[in-house]
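User: Quick sanity check before I run a bigger batch. Here is a single chain. Can you write out its predicted 3D structure?
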Amino acid sequence: MFVKDRSAACFFIGIPIVYVLLFGTLYLKNTVNYTATVVYDEDQTALSREVVRAFEDSDRFRIVAYVDTQEELEQYMREKKSLVGVAIPLHFSRDIKKGVSAPILFEVDGSNIIIANTLIGSAQDLIGKVYPAIAQDLIGVIGMPPGASSHYASPIDVETRILNNPTFGYTNFLLIGLGVYALQTGIVLTVGPLVNREFQRLDAWKETATPLILAGKMLAYWLCGVLTFIGYVLICVYVFMLPFRGGIGELLLLGSGYVFSVAAVGCFIGTVAPGEVMAVLMPLLYIMPALLFSGYIWPQMIMNTFSYVFAKSVPIGYMADNMRDLMLNGYAPHLLHDAGILYMSGLVLLVAAGGIFSLRRKHSKFRSDEGAPT
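Assistant: Done. Predicted structure follows.
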């Protein structure tokens, strides 16, 4: 069946194997561990330190900072330096000793509902395991008998505050990322074959320099892509009622950079693919893994090294989270930096595509000259 087309056989057999290997690597640990956490212990007592120590000792959480005010904790969460915040209020220890319910505030970024739900459950389990240690402390501190101390140690109330997506709406979580993914898919699968098709029309471009050919095409693809991006955002906001809390200028800067970079990927694939069919097949090795490694579903800050490097090598890795933050939070702390990377990576790919296009163009002309009658 594949005797005459070995490349098709490679994709037929290879794509499922490559996908399984990549996705297995991404989810190898099978759990959400070492999530960046910031702690605000206002009480600063032996009992409050027992709670903090439990988070320190847990594999689920990785404390990245201890702050002195609630405002600092909120800033860490807003700037995406942590996904979790733990705040222990003043009089926490006093209330426990009095038998009064003592609250602990557990803040979690709800943009990613899968991760947020896991972390909330982990925090509640963790606090439940703290009870025996607190009971022992009460025995030593105020001389309570074991039965009474365990009764007094139990009323720790974990108050959960979900930021950015408080209703845990699936539309807010999925639609933004799927739209970005669909835009990437449409651009790469269209631009690659269209650029590759130009190798069949080189005679029509023999008087035009390669940079002008690619620049003209990229401009058209870029403009169409930006208009499509704007249309997709309008549908999200006005048809499906997704919140949009960011600025229009930031949105256009990020979206135009993403479209430019993805179109450059398509252009590069189109220049290296041997034919139109391969220009369609080759992106399949990139499109699906790019979404899963983008950090949109599995956060980049908890990825293993290989997955993190992969995430930083694809345009959607610089787009999806920023887009969600901009729409749901009104602020994306890494937007300017990531938009700059999108434009620069697109420019590098365009230069590389131009070089390959020129080489293939010269090779095609050389073969034509060889075959010409003398």
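The beta strands are 35-41, 61-66, 84-88, 102-109, 156-163.

User: Great, the batch can go ahead then.
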